[in-house]
Amino acid sequence: MKIGVTCYPTVGGSGILATRLGIEFARKGHETHFITYERPVAIQGVDEPNVYMHLVSVIEYPLFKYPPYTIALGSEMTRVTQKHDLDLLHVHYSIPHSTAAFLSKQQTGKPYVVTLHGSDVTILGSDPSYEPVNTFSVEAADAVTAVSKFMADEAKQNLGISHEIRVIPNFVDTEKFSPASCEVIDVKKDTNPEIVVTHVSNFRPVKRIQDLIYAMCIITKDLPNAKLILIGDGPDRHKVERLIDRMDLRKNISLTGYRSDVPELMRCADALVLCSETESAPLTILEAMSTGLPVVATKVGGVPEIVQDGKNGYLVPVKHPEEIAARLLDLASDRGKTAKMSENARKTVLEKYSTNKVVKQYMDVYNSITR
Ligand code: GMT
Question: Average pLDDT of the chain?
Answer without folding.
Answer: 96
